[in-house]
Amino acid sequence: MSVASGTNMESMKTDLPPFPLIGKNPDEEPPRVRFAPSPTGSLHVGGARTALYNWLIAQGARVEGDTNASFIVRVEDTDVARSTKESEESVLKDLEWLGLQWDEGPVTNGDFGPYRQSERADLYKSVARTLLDSGKAYPCFSTNEELESVKEAQMKAGESPRYDGKWRDADPELVQQKIDAGDPYTVRFKVPKGARVVIDDVVRGTIAWDAEATVGDFILLRSSGVPVYNFCVAVDDATMGITMVVRAEEHLTNTLRQGLILDALGAPRPRYAHCSLILGEDQQKLSKRHGATSCNQFKEDGFLPDAMINYLSLLGWNDGTDREIFTRDELVDSFDMSRVNPSGAVFDMQKLKWINGNHLKMMSIEEVKPLILEQLIKHNVLNSNGASDSINRITLAATCLAKQMMVTTVDAATNAKAVLAYPLPQSFDDLSSVEPDEQKLIKSGAFYNVAKAIVAAYDAGVLPRPNEVNVMEPFEELNGELIVEDNATGGGAYAYPAAWKTFMKTLGKEMNLKGKNLFHPARLAMTGVMSGQDVTKQMALLQLACEFGSAVDLEGGLEVVPLEVRIEMLRGFLETIPEEFRVKKEEVVVKEVVQGKKGGGDRRGEGTAAGVTSDAGDSADLVSTYEGPAFNTMDVRVGRITKVWKHEESDKLFCEEVDVGEAEPRQIASGLQPFFSESDLQDRKVLVLCNLKARKLAGFPSHGMVLCTSNDDHTSVKFCDAPVDAEIGERVWWGGDGVLPENMEEAAAENKFAKKKMFEKIAPYLRTNEFGVCEFLGKPIMTNSGPCTSAMADGGIS
Ligand code: GLU
Fold first, then answer.
1. Dihedral, CA atoms, 346, 351, 355, 361, nearest 10 degrees?
2. SS (H, E, C) 588-613
3. Which residues pair with 638 in a beta bridge?
4. Catalytic residue list contains 516
5. pLDDT category, 626, cuts 50, 70, 90?
6. What whole-number distance in Å separates Cα of residue 483 and Cα of residue 365?
7. What does DSSP assign to residue 632?
8. Given 190, 218, 625, 655, which is the most exposed site by the fewest CB atoms within 10 A?
């Protein structure tokens, strides 16, 4: 059939455009892949993952020397009503933010453009014309009413509605007459009799459609001359020489129509890869109701592009190992479509955060700083019009403080705000406004005297304060290198950190306090929060915020409580603390007993209010007054470390395989890297707490805890050792005077053994004595071959 002319065909050329892949095998060509967004909204994580996989394919090939590999962005804006320029711009901006730069596409252009479907209308018309001329498509004059009534009849008869083929084999003369009369018509594709489309999908394997049974003759061009979506996609893939189509599963059914069109055109079909949907935690398709889904939102929320692409790559792909952290280059090296799996991937915000935190740690301060600056301005910590020197120093301080702890860059702003505020309540009556831990500390009586001493030091002018000549001291080593661990202070020779250390040491001596009994109350007094970052760093940030001409955004509502005001608030608060909470009472009993036994030594982590004298007691009292969980509810066993390696992502953790007498060794992660080398651990006999709930440490699932002894400030750590002839797997027990109890308690079952509820209650009473014997409540912890010991005397066990 030949159609000479028609209202919607006038401008058509009849030559087929070139199809670059004709006569070639797409699998063997340099990859030409495309991301084809419909600009009807912002770039969502699903689209971003599709773009990423395509980008990785092209980038991977290029790294291997394939200079002709190309990542193409094609804007699919055929749906004029829903497509907007703003959306296109925002999608392109997000792709750029993710670092997924396209080789061909809008803006960059290329040899196969234009790259917007709206600019390719002539091409679609000319291809339609060719298909008409060759009889692979035909004009259809059925009106909407006719089509509706056919559909109704089909539905009534229980058939699935489809075009009835009325004009498929119409008389050519009649067709010509109607065209000449100017009757409107659509161009329909003539689905060949018996046609099948079979694809070998990279992700989903072989998929076949019986075309005739699945679709009726479908429209290519509407009567208005506007091409239909699937037609555009097929023509574009053919004319752009696309070798592989990587897209979302929801487009799978489109492949049938697109495949039929490509076959009719004689253009080789690209290889297809349909990636599974991204699901929310409820296993439903990820949507806005699951929280942030658009890339732009993640950018705003403080996520890094490298962390985003790392996380997105794992939504349906892995490199064949448990590895989860990849840099961009590592992804390019490792990514392989053949390892993309077909099951739905659940979007896990916690994991994304964990990955983001890891990437933040991998970046240098200088790299992170501009991102933190953005957040400090956005969250009204800094005024962007402030003095640049102040902006620079505050940003640096906030970055150093947050570098190792932040999960997103927003955390640095939140942390800075928290540091500058002082949440101590005005009066003891308002105590419920602070966190439970702080309440407990104040009510324990441990706070009052330390805080009072701090106020007194301030009044006497001896409370160390940041060095106004170099406020940044706590953030720097003497050699000028920045310190990123938020609790490590500047080189000891610096005036302020050194003065603070000395002050705390003297205070501790005077009050006979150490460890958390000294540091928690002091922190609470200075910062309004009992635990957290190094006080000198926090005070330095506060000083920067209080300096004359500081760039902090007070007008934007930032709360900054200067030291002077803190001290006055503290003074007022202390006056409201009732008499009964001014002395640390309960723990005095415990301390006195232990002191008595050890001849005056202090217990780790426990202290007493200054001035309380102790009556020497006996450890039996300690046993009788103890009310916590029984030691033997813990499943502590003798084990042997059979394998040890450094955790890939953490410079603190060792990963170990430990034989605890079970069929398989257990995997355990321990924070021992700063204290030991791998050879110290290899083949060592250790004590292992086995019924802790399994937990992930920096992503490594850990099934237990190796018991160690440490000094008060945890700067020295030694192992708890079993006697040489203790047997692997044997249970470690406690029986008062070293005698096996008659009815040894069943160890609590794993999982039910919550660390907080049990171990942390037991741990304060687990110590080594002056001879290094491991003891609970002052009595030895035993194996059947004798007591457990440690190279550290007088240490706490955990
Ligand atoms: N334009 C489609 C979308 O945004 C993509 C179609 C395709 O990749 O073939 O979902």
1. 170
2. HHHHHHHHHHHCCCCCCCCCCCCCCC
3. 687
4. no
5. confident
6. 9
7. G
8. 625
In sequence order, the 6+-apart residues with CB closer than 8 A to the CB of 607 are 446, 512, 513, 514, 515, 517, 518, 584, 587, 591
Q: 593: closest CA among 625, 629, 569, 621?
A: 621
- What residues contact 600, with CB distance under 8 A and at least 6 apart? none
659 Cβ inside 6 Å of ligand 1: no
Amino acid identity of residue 184, one-letter, is P
37 lines ligand 1 (CB under 6 A): yes
Q: Which residue has the tokens 């915000």?
A: 349
Residue 372 sits at φ, ψ, to 5 deg, of -70, -40
pTM comes to 0.72
Question: Which atom of ligand 1 is the closest one to the Cα of 246?
Answer: 8
- The tens digit of pLDDT for each residue in 643-671 reads 999 998 888 899 999 999 998 999 999 99
Residue found by looking up tokens 């920067």 in the block: 544
Residue 539 CA to residue 557 CA, distance in Å, equals 20
Spatial distance between the Cα atoms of 571 and 458, rounded to a whole number of angstroms: 11
CA distance 237 to 240: 5
Distance (Å, whole) CA 58 – CA 731? 57
Q: What angle do CA 742, 746, 752 make, to 5 degrees?
A: 155
- Residue 436 in tokens: 């439970």
What is the rounded CA–CA span in Å between residue 55 and residue 61? 10
**Per-residue pLDDT reduced to its tens digit, 501-554:** 999 999 999 999 988 889 999 999 999 999 888 999 999 999 999 999 999 999
Query: Alpha-carbon torsion 608, 613, 618, 623, what sign?
Result: negative
Q: Does the pLDDT of residue 424 top 90, yes or no?
A: yes
The atom of ligand 1 lying closest to the CA of 247 is 8
Nearest CA residue ID for atom 6, ligand 1 = 36
Out of 38, 45, 120, mutate this one to test ligand 1's pocket (max ligand atoms within 8 Å of CB): namely 38
- Ligand 1 centroid–CA 333 distance in Å is 26
CA 123 to centroid of ligand 1, rounded, Å = 19
Output the CA torsion sign for 410, 416, 421, 422.
positive
| Token output for 579 | 């008499």
**Pocket flag, ligand 1, residue 251 (CB < 6 Å):** yes
